[in-house]
């Protein structure tokens, strides 16, 4: 149990200069995470380049806790693509597959209908009342890559906030007491 | 220096790096596969063909779909999502794509199939343009990997035509 005594000792020998140093390096970590996220947003053209699958509507392709990488190019949306869309007035984006596309000749506007692979019917009940089609501006990105299980970390942290606080305090304690 | 925390951190970082590397390699190995799927679709019958009360045309088809998608499967393939879409042009729309049937192929053994079916999703036009319409039937597939990049491609089959009159 030497490391506990060491930690206590290092808290006791707390110096203002060291504290400032810790604060700066913590700031650096937060800032670089933000920079990576914003860079990803620019590169992928999607307002959230990575999403976690929360529902079972795309089983067995995607299950809860899987991570999807999104990319939104200028290419038109076509049938079969898995898109992430956001309905006005709903805060959780939905990952489903496009099953119908009607593209206007004069304006190039599209009407899109989606459906979850594991759902019986199409998504019209999920849309806003009296909305029968998705338009281009509802689409946040199309899924291009897939990584299983990794998203469970965020699901656990949002559903059991206590774990999040424990984790943050342990990490904070480690950051304060570390000597290097 | 060689404290518990330091070692745990080094171990975790190493493990995650190796895992990420293996995932990336598994995904990259998919590029060495050059698939050659085949497909045939016949429209056996027009079950009914009408104008709905709201003015849109709707048609019901009986289809015979056969395909061999075995070459799509690699060791990194979780499943293949396959679907058949009708594609056509109308005076108002430069492209209409309507999904008619879809299926999930869980393994290579099931990737050679034929199915006799009516359209699973309703074939409804935006408007009343389907009489005498020439259309393509396109078999699309979407390869879902165990990890990494997803692949999609299609076979276009042309030369289908809807009847001139409602029935």
UniProtKB/TrEMBL annotation, chain A:
GO biological process, one term: signal peptide processing
Its membrane topology: Single-pass type II membrane protein
UniProt keywords, alphabetically: Hydrolase, Membrane, Protease, Signal-anchor, Transmembrane, Transmembrane helix
Family annotation (Gene3D superfamilies): Umud Fragment, subunit A
Catalytic activity line of the entry: Cleavage of hydrophobic, N-terminal signal or leader sequences from secreted and periplasmic proteins
SUPFAM superfamilies: LexA/Signal peptidase (SSF51306)
InterPro entries hit by this protein: LexA/Signal_pep-like_sf, Peptidase_S24_S26A/B/C, Peptidase_S26B
Protein name as annotated: signal peptidase I
Lineage: Eukaryota, Viridiplantae, Streptophyta, Embryophyta, Tracheophyta
TrEMBL record, chain B:
Annotated membrane topology: Single-pass type II membrane protein
BP GO terms, sorted: protein targeting to ER; signal peptide processing
Subcellular location: Endoplasmic reticulum membrane
Signal sequence, renumbered to the chain: 1-26
Short name of one Pfam family: SPC22
InterPro entries per UniProt: SPC3 (IPR007653)
GO cellular component: signal peptidase complex
Chief place of localization: endoplasmic reticulum
Keywords: Endoplasmic reticulum, Membrane, Signal, Signal-anchor, Transmembrane, Transmembrane helix
Source taxon at top rank: Eukaryota
Transmembrane helix is among the record's keywords: yes
Transmembrane segments: none
Protein family per UniProt: Belongs to the SPCS3 family.
Function: Essential component of the signal peptidase complex (SPC) which catalyzes the cleavage of N-terminal signal sequences from nascent proteins as they are translocated into the lumen of the endoplasmic reticulum. Essential for the SPC catalytic activity, possibly by stabilizing and positioning the active center of the complex close to the lumenal surface.
Name the record gives this protein: Signal peptidase complex subunit 3
């Amino acid at each position: 149990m030497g490391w506990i005594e060491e930690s206590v000792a290092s808290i006791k020998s707390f110096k203002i200069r060291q504290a400032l140093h810790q604060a700066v390096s913590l700031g650096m970590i937060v800032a670089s995470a933000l920079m990576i996220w914003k860079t990803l947003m620019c590169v992928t053209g999607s307002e959230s380049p990575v999403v976690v699958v929360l529902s079972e509507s795309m089983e067995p392709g995607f299950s809860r806790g899987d991570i999807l990488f999104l990319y939104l190019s200028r290419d038109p949306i076509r049938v079969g693509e898995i898109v992430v869309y956001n309905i006005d007035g709903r805060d959780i984006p939905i990952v489903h597959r496009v099953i119908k596309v009607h593209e206007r000749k004069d304006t190039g506007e599209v009407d899109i209908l989606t459906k979850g692979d594991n759902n019986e019917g199409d998504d019209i009940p999920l849309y806003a009342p009296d909305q029968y089609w998705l338009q281009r501006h509802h689409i946040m990105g199309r899924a291009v890559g897939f990584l299983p299980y990794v998203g469970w970390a965020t699901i656990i942290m949002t559903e059991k906030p206590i774990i999040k606080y424990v984790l943050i305090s342990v990490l904070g304690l480690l950051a304060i007491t570390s000597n290097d | 220096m060689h404290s518990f925390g330091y070692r745990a951190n080094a171990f975790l970082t190493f493990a995650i790096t190796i895992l990420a590397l293996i995932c990336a390699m598994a995904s990259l190995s998919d590029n060495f596969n050059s698939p050659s799927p085949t497909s045939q679709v016949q429209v056996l019958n027009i079950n009914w063909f009408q104008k709905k009360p709201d003015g849109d045309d709707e048609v019901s088809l009986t289809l015979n779909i056969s395909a061999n998608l075995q070459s799509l499967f690699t060791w990194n393939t979780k499943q293949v999502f396959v679907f058949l879409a009708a594609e056509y042009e109308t005076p108002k729309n430069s492209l209409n794509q309507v999904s008619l049937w879809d299926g999930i192929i869980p393994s290579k053994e099931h990737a050679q199939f034929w199915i006799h079916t009516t359209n699973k999703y309703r074939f409804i036009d935006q408007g009343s343009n389907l009489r005498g319409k020439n259309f393509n039937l396109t078999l699309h597939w979407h390869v879902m990997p165990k990890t990494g990049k997803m692949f999609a491609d299609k076979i276009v089959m042309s030369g289908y035509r809807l009847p001139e009159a409602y029935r």
